[in-house]
Amino acid sequence: MARNRIASLIAVAFAVFGGAAMVTAAAVLGETGVSSHLVPDRLADAEILVTAPQRHRVVEDPDIPFPERQTLPAELVADIAAVPGVAGAAADLTFTARLDDIGAVEDGAARGDAIEGHSWDTAALFGTSTPAPGTGEVVFDAETAAEAGLAAGDLVALTTAHGTAEYTVSAVADTAGQGFYTDAATARALAGHGDGEADLIVVDVAADAAVEAVAADLRAALSGTGFEVVTGDARGDAETLAGGTARSELIELATALAATIVLLVGFITAGAIGVSVAGQRRDLALLRAVGATPRQVRRLVATQASIVAAIGLVPGVAVGYLLAERFTAFLAGSGTMPEGLPVALTPISGLIAAALLILTVQIAARAAALRTSRLPATAAVAESRIEPREPGRIRTGIGLLVLAMAIAQSLMPLVIPGEAAFASAATATLTAVIGLALAGPALVRTVLRLMARKSGTRVDAPGWLAAGNGRAYARRTAGAVAVLALAVGLTVTQVSAQSTFSQTAAAEIADGAKADATVTGAISTADLAALNRESGVEAAVGVIETTVLRTYDMAGDEEVDPIPALAFSPGIDQVADLDLEDGDLAALTGDTVALDAGTARLWGAEVGDRIGLVLADGTRVDAEVAATYGRGFGFGTVILAADLVTGHAGPRFYDAALATGDEAAVADWAADVPGLAVETGATVPSIATGMTPDQWLNVMVTLVLCGYVMLGAANGLVAATARRRGEFASLRAAGATQRQVRAMMRRETLFLCALAIGAGLAVSVLPMTLLSLVFLGEPWPQGPLWVIPAVVALTALVASAAIAIPTRKALKMPLTTLVAAAE
Questions:
Q1: Which strands make up the sheet holding 86-92, listed edge to edge?
Q2: Which is it for strands 610-614 and 137-141: parallel, antiparallel or unpaired?
Q3: Where is each ABC3 transporter permease C-terminal domain found (predicted)?
Q4: What separation in angstroms does the CA of 123 have from each of 218, 260, 324, 385?
């Protein structure tokens, strides 16, 4: 059967090929997030690290890593050193400093750079000939010293979050890329840790001891404390928290992609198998007539489809690995993924993709053969040449219900504020296409019947035949319409939703930003105070970019939402107009937050209420809501008081300072502070002037998905047209010329494209128009105007070529050959 129906089964192979490539690429991303680790750098000699948990545990979901480090008691060093097999242990402390005035070389290359400082105990643990720094002394690594032009005996000014102090370079260590070292007491003071706190505890294993055995003993000794013993590749993530954060983002990205990709793969593959089964209905009916059971028929179709799918699966998986390499390179270049994180190119991703695709093919094939296998043998033979007279009522009813749900989702921006409105409107397109696929046959018949009534006797013979074919084979037509509508709707929705969001955020920032200048760089509390004292500067407010986790109860389980946030020092109302709705922004001090008004209503929070948050270093706080504001897209869902961040995590640099007053005075002040830069106006939050990495990522994914949908649509149309050779033979035998048959097919293509493009625009333009109307006050979808005509033209081109080429090929056959091929 497969050999005799190879034309229709090729569409299945191509659908699986494209699906396997995309699923494999998503699986590689997920596997990279699960199993890959950054290589240890400064602590590479430490075979074991002890750390506090650097992630928030979430029940039944991936844990959420903390962007900032949780500390642990330094007193554990003594307990760890007493474990058999441990040669030594040291508390490790890391902090950030700015390299200011340099005594030896005033214009050193590193002047003003933010560099890392560490406690000397860690370096001393593994033996070094460099003498330890004393009080008021620092030891620089060779690379940083060379960049700054420093040598032993030079004086250097280092600015930390506390302020600026002068130190003597006591020595230059023969190491690279490790910043500088101070004595433990100085490091603890500069890091802002409390007495007895450390970032990590570094363990040196005795030469005659097995690392894993010592690690097991350490885990037993630390049992019940919650602290973790890390060995092997995981040490890189313990040393550099960015690795864990990036891995978590890769898992989230892979999960989001996989959900959409698997749905599309199932949609396209099911359509391709449906066309294949439709071409074999007579064969299947004859099998039923000679005694095959329904189960045997379904197993036959599923096995046949799986064999053909395997042909497309192997090259698809191979292309998927190549696609994953290019994709991860883009992510690394855009900063989404850190350089040096190994990409997991193992067979596991390919096996996952193969299992998912085979399962999808099995389900789609059995579903496509379900009706034919259940029909009595006589009815199956009767239906083997035509479709059922009327679409199934249950299927149509479910489809109409899903379409109603899609309309309700489209209306959500009218009642739901914030980002939830965007998610609901974007999802409405996919929901509507699913409803269209289910209710499509009934809708196609109704539309074509109305068109026939309106046209009356004015339609020519090819048009009359085309309309009749559309009504008689409504399932075939509806399947093609749904897939092409998906391509149109998906493209318009993705482009318009991103444009609407970007324009909404940009408009709110433009309306709310009042700063005359923005200072960027590592800004200490002392720097901010000095800027406020500068003549001509009216106000200067520090800004910290951070992340918080919102925790809440859902059906007895703790749910966690990570939220990017900005923290401001007192005076935010002097540099920004947040469109205050309730409360007082002047009260944004201490353990307080301000919420976007829409989010506050969604959370059920009012001014004076307390909400549970987890800070970036894992500290749980009950923050009081001091105010609610209207410009949440531009300034974020949550705004923190800087005191809330520094009061729990310890002093830290501000990432920027917003200043009002004389811009020249701000620039003059910043010119005397190494490492700081000044820009005109408020650049925090930033207004995107071009495509952001996230937007480029969305565009790339959308193009790939739409390309796959177009490929699936073309395959399905080619297969469906190829199996109409019997129909062409009948028309030729009745006296129709090749030109008349081609004219009929052109009319069918016109009907198909009109229905598909109209449906695709209908399911996308409505939600995108409402989104634009609510947030921008403009009653039309946002985004580049050329996108809609471009996707319409591409859709028409794909459909026309996929129908015209196999039609011409079939009609070139002599009539006798065409009849034989049809049989």
A1: 86-92, 200-205, 48-51, 228-231
A2: unpaired
A3: 257-376, 709-814
A4: 22, 49, 39, 81
Is the sign of the CA dihedral 512, 518, 522, 523 positive or negative?
negative
Type of residue numbered 592? T
Looking at residue 107, what DSSP letter applies? T
Q: What angle do CA 466, 471, 474 make, to 5 degrees?
A: 110
- All residues at 6 or more sequence positions from 360 whose CB lies less than 8 Å from its CB, including other chains: 19, 262, 265, 266, 269, 270
Q: Is 626 buried (19+), middle (13-18) or exposed (0-12) by CB count in 10 A?
A: buried
The 10 Å Cβ neighbour count of residue 207 is 6
Placement of tokens 């296998």 in the chain: 373
Of 608, 600, 570, 610, nearest to 588 (Cα)? Answer: 570
Percent of the chain with pLDDT over 70: 89
Which amino acid does the sequence have at 333?
G
Distances (CA, A) of 578 to 89, 413, 511, 573: 50, 21, 9, 8
Whole-angstrom distance, CA of residue 542 vs CA of residue 654: 6
Q: Assess whether pLDDT exceeds 80 at residue 749.
A: yes
* pLDDT tens digits for range 522-542: 888 888 989 999 888 899 999
Three-class secondary structure assignment of 565-630:
EEEECCCHHHHECCCEEEECHHHCCCCEEEEEHHHHHHHCCCCCCEEEEECCCCCEEEEEEEEEEC
Percent of the chain exceeding pLDDT 90 equals 10
pTM higher than 0.85 for the full model? no
State residue 105's pLDDT score: 45
Q: What is the dihedral of CA 254, 256, 261, 266, to 10 degrees?
A: 120
3-state helix, strand, coil in the chain (%, to 5): 55, 20, 25
Return d(Cα 249, Cα 208) in angstroms, integer: 40
| Structure tokens that stand for 642 in this block | 């800087």
CA distance linking residue 245 with residue 460, whole number of Å: 65
Give residue for tokens 């004389």. 662
- Residue 55: both structure tokens together: 């992630």
Distance CA(305)–CA(719), nearest Å, equals: 14
Question: pLDDT of 462-483, one tens digit each?
Answer: 777 777 776 667 677 777 788 8
Average pLDDT over every residue of 682-699: 68
Instruction: Indicate if the alpha-carbon torsion angle 729, 735, 738, 741 is positive or negative.
Output: negative
* Closest C-alpha to 713, from 518, 497, 477: 477
Residue-wise pLDDT tens digits, 386-416: 555 566 678 788 888 988 888 888 888 887 7
Return mean pLDDT, the chain.
82
As a whole number of angstroms, the distance between CA 649 and CA 70 comes to 9
Which residue reads 């004859």 in tokens? Answer: 286
* H helices present in 650-776, as ranges: 663-671, 693-722, 725-733, 738-776
Task: Answer for the pair 26, 258: CB distance below 8 angstroms, yes or no.
Answer: yes
Residue 387 DSSP symbol = -
Which is it for the CA torsion 455, 458, 463, 467, positive or negative? Answer: positive
- Crossing angle of helices 461-472 and 419-455, in 10° steps, is 130
The per-type count for the chain, helices as H runs and strands as E runs, is: 28, 24
Q: Are 680 and 443 in contact (CB under 8 A)?
A: no
Q: What whole-number distance in Å separates Cα of residue 818 and Cα of residue 171? A: 90
| Tokens 């000699």, residue located | 45
Token pair in block for residue 215: 């690690």
Query: And the tokens for 714?
Result: 């073309």
Least confident of 103-117, 565-579, 788-802: 103-117
Rg of the chain over all Cα atoms, to the nearest angstrom: 33
The type of residue at 218 is L
Tell me, letter by letter, the H, E, C secondary structure of 459-520.
CCHHHHHHHHHHHHCHHHHHHHHHHHHHHHHHHHHHHHHHHHHHHHHHHHHHHHECCCEEEE
Nearest to 419 by CA among 546, 504, 510, 489: 504
